Amino acid sequence: MQYRVQGIVIRSMDYGEGNKIITLFTREHGKLSVVARGAKKVKSRYGSSAQLFTCGDYLFFKSGQLGTLNHAEIIEPFHKIREDLHKAAHASYLSELTDRMLGDQEGQPFLYDQLKASLQAIQEDKDLQIIDHLYEMKMFVLAGYTPELEQCVVCRENAEPFAISVGMGGMLCERCKLRDPQAIPLTPGAYKLLRLFIQMDVRRLGQIDVKPQTKQLLKTILRAYFDTHVGLKLKSRDFLDQMDKYGV
Questions:
Q1: ∠ at Cα 200 (129, 206), nearest 5°?
Q2: Is residue 166 part of a domain?
Q3: Does the keyword Transmembrane helix apply (predicted)?
Q4: Taking CA atoms, which of 7, 29, 90, 212 is between 20 and 30 Å from 105?
């Protein structure tokens, strides 16, 4: 069967002498794996279109698990991302997150648009950590792990948020804060941004200025939330941590 899709390369691996297997995240069909024959060769017609983060139109034939690429036209190469270590590291994290959390051939048009917009935002020098958090929250919502931020998860009152319980999956009011000794205290700024991450379309992201201490708190909360409710080990996240640790 022949497919014509618009997709983003979220994984690329060598296959045999001169070939690559690329995983495309497509708008209509979700994840699809395709063999790009000769893509490793210097003068390959698929060399650029098989590179990580490339967005393009892909035509391929598929009869089994893997398709065979017949034609590709690049829409957005995202050169600036691949040329910058920090940008590439964050884009790799979003790509691996997508690859690991989605099953094959699960069409997700909205999430596709969010990933494409996230890569565009990375290329445009917008805040890398905020882009990560926006996209992470979209993945939480998709997977059914949306944190409860409208009311206390214990008493269900619409009270002032005091802390967030990662284990209970949402905010705690001051009266119920002792129900989880591990709850992380919330600041008004962090609470506002967490709610914004749930509601905001990445395509509407402008330049945003967040205090370093607020960004650190957001990172602590969302890392703990991911590890508790999703629990995937991501190489790209480990690499980001190493870059932070050594000040790269």
A1: 60
A2: no
A3: no
A4: 90
What is the residue range of 31's domain?
1-76
* Residue 49: closest CA among 38, 39, 37: 39
Residue 54 lies in a domain: yes
CATH of the domain at 15: 2.40.50.140
Q: Which two tokens stand for residue 22?
A: 């690329």
pTM of the model: 0.95
The mean pLDDT values, 10 residues at a time, for the chain of 248 residues are 94 93 94 94 88 97 88 97 97 98 87 98 97 98 95 94 96 96 97 97 94 97 97 96 89
Please check whether residue 38 lies inside any domain of the structure: yes
Tell the residue number behind the tokens 């201490």, with chain if given.
Answer: 213
Are 19 and 41 spatial neighbours (Cβ–Cβ below 8 Å)? Answer: no
Query: Count of domains in the chain?
Result: 1
